[in-house]
Amino acid sequence: MSSAYQPRRPVPAWDSTRLQPRDYRIPPHMPGMRIGLFGGTFDPPHEAHLGACLLAMRRLHLDRVWWLVTPGNPLKSTTHLAPLAQRIAAARALARHPRIEVTGLEAAVGVRYSYDAIRYLVMRCPGVHFVWIMGADNLRSFHRWNNWRGIASLVPIAVVDRLGPSLYANASAAGQALGFARLPERSAATLPLRLPPAWVFLHGLKSPLSSTALRAKRQSQSDHRSTADFPLRPASLESAKRTRQGMAADAAAGSTRLDGGTAEPPSKAATDTRSAVRERDVERKLRGGTRGG
Q: 30-209+231-287 has which fold?
């Protein structure tokens, strides 16, 4: 299926500065692929985002992960949110992975809630095995999301461990309601092919990083100055660069980028070892120190 399409609604003028066509297109894909969907404001993107996706990519045997940069979280204030184009650019600068795609298609399509975005992609990407990826902190408040049961009925869900929230996330309203559909972690690799509702809790990454805390810190430092005076930069960018060592080797080993929606899926066997090394490196950095407060 071609990745080109015309958005139903243009990105709002106030949030369209420097937005490029590739920023609101559905990333390349093909039937049979396993693709993780990782949504958020990414304001700012940080190493825990990358670490969670690398962990999910390896444990679930995903071919791609799409970062869905949302115009704004309906459950949080958007008063000091950086422009969409800046957040997309910062997310790409942090990720720089041949199997991670960053897109702002939610704004162009005109959807506000995760359910609508997921439903849109499921309808337009037939044959793709999507998995929704979220942190344990989101599972705690999942029952407050618009049509959260609908999300669980559309795609399988992978919940990634977080420092603190994992202690009570499974006891949350959504965790209890969906308890019957939880898979043992040893079956994580089968999740993308399961019929929803189905979900798994992935242990191994306990990050204290928080975009909300980092954003609050940025705002306290930028009072009385415009957003333009403070270009959005990914948190821990230098450390993230170190986690990307060997990316070129991944591509050579079979992580071929898709072009126009047609290409053969990458060889997982050739890349799993390198992904595991990067995952452990990210986890060591996260446990070692940088906190969002």
A: Rossmann fold (3.40.50)
